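ok trying again, last paste got cut off:
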Amino acid sequence: MITIAENIAQLSARLQRLERQYERSTSSVKLLAVSKRHPVESIIAANKAGIEDFGENYLQEALDKIQHLSSLRVNWHFIGPIQSNKTKAIAENFQWVHSIDRLKIAQRLSDQREPSASKLNVCVQVNISHEANKSGVELGEVEALCDRVAALPNLQLRGLMAIPAAEPDLDSQRIAFRVLAQEYSRLKPRYVQFDTLSMGMSNDFEAAIAEGSTLIRIGTGIFGPRS
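nice, full thing came through this time. structure:
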């Protein structure tokens, strides 16, 4: 059976090959391990193999893991849809939020973030494929939301995130990612620490890297199928 450490080693090697293939700078693509629905033992194994960033979708599951793994040196990223009644716990326990899609949620996160803590790093989620069942702001509304989020005192706007509709081949996958990358490049000069383009998952991260992703979110490719 292939271990989590072996999966990470193979994935890291492939990332290096793709960075060269698409003329990206070395180590320009960060790896976020999506650990939702995986046990704490798997997170510990990934951490021992060098992973420090973990993404969770479900708040209570994440809080249990954060408490259990408090001795580990890790960064917790919330990557799922956010309800208003969940913002306080997210503001208090996470270092990153990738799924800001409305001002109300951003305001609550800022208000509920302890001012003495470091700013909460956030990305605005874009519904790049216009899917009714997915979270995210429409492309034409991204700049206005980013302007408002960037002004909030306890948040640090870091970039954009998207989960495009599934496509069958590399060329089709690249089209949606290219649209988001163009918007990211257009907005980047406006914001101080705008450095994160969070796009690409286990089935499409090559296309995302080809179009400029700086962070890919990988679950199955690291941990295997969820139970």
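cool. The chain has one domain: 4-223. The mean pLDDT is 96.
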